[in-house]
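Troubleshooting entry. Yesterday's outputs looked truncated, so today I'm pasting the complete records for two proteins to confirm everything comes through intact. If either block looks cut off, that's the bug. Protein one:
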Amino acid sequence: MTIAYLGLGANLGDARQTLKDAVVCLAQQHTITVLAKSSVYRTAPIDASGDDYFNCVVKLETSLPARSLLRLCHHIEEQFGRERPYRNAPRTLDLDILLYGASSIDEADLVVPHPRMTERAFVLVPLVELEPDLILPQRGRADAFIAGVADQRIEKVATCQCMVATNPRDAAATTAPSNDKTDCR
């Protein structure tokens, strides 16, 4: 079994819901165990056009070889309506293999670690959220690259605002929203 990290992004349709559904889709694969998911972040497109992106990172354990994981990612993208009319086109779903164990892969259609991951806040911030002490093969600590992307707009998206009741019986009696809110994940 190999620990891998995937970057998920979308900026067409209901992008936030697409990310949630894609994580569920990954978790339903018998060759994958989803170990953790970062928060969802909203970011400006980089070297691309279109609306803002929603992004997250997923840590998983898989029995798939890297190339099979890539094929699965492409299949899932297609299931979500991904089209590739031109480079960096807006997308319904993008799944990138960021890391695959300690492997270093350099092939025409698969480069791991992802070649631009240290240049993208939408990858580094959620990745470091999941693994604060993560070491990138042949590059060093992931958090050491965050200062270099500080000029890129990125904001954590609240997934829901659930009211918190101090007593479970009080929850049904609450008629006005409370100022005590929590992020429900």
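Protein two, checking that the full record survives here as well:
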Amino acid sequence: MRIGLYPGTFDPVTVGHIDIIQRACSLVDKLVIGVAINRDKGPLFSLEERVAMIEAECAEIAEKCGVEIVAHPFENLLIHCAQEVGASMIIRGLRAVADFEYEYQMVGMNRAMNDQIETVFLMAEAQHQAIASKLVKEIARLDGNISKFVTPRVEAALMAKLGKA
């Protein structure tokens, strides 16, 4: 069974994330969405809320693709999480060349710790390359329209979280 791990903070999950998830499904039999517990980033949504959003957004994708998709919170090293879930590959989404430089360093470190786990890069579709969760939250906070960047369910959750529902 090919198991892939797609890690991120997903605060909140965007259509860019969903694009990568859908495309990653063609590479694996099971996709684990690693929801990072990153206290340094100070997420707007709680871990439980982020996991619930991922599960809600991925249910239809899993059914349509015939791939098991599970949300898995983690706070340890990414390579350790990959080992825990039995992943043979880590899936990373790239938006721009600037992302690649950081990701390249991460691949080197991860391979030094476990050279049996490959990293696969998927480029975001052109219409999703500028989307970042941080920017989506900022746009929503300043009363901008975020409907192009998140699903209606995530938009409603974000607006409620910001007290704008």
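Both blocks look complete. Sanity check on protein two: The domain at 3-128 is CATH 3.40.50.620 (Rossmann fold).
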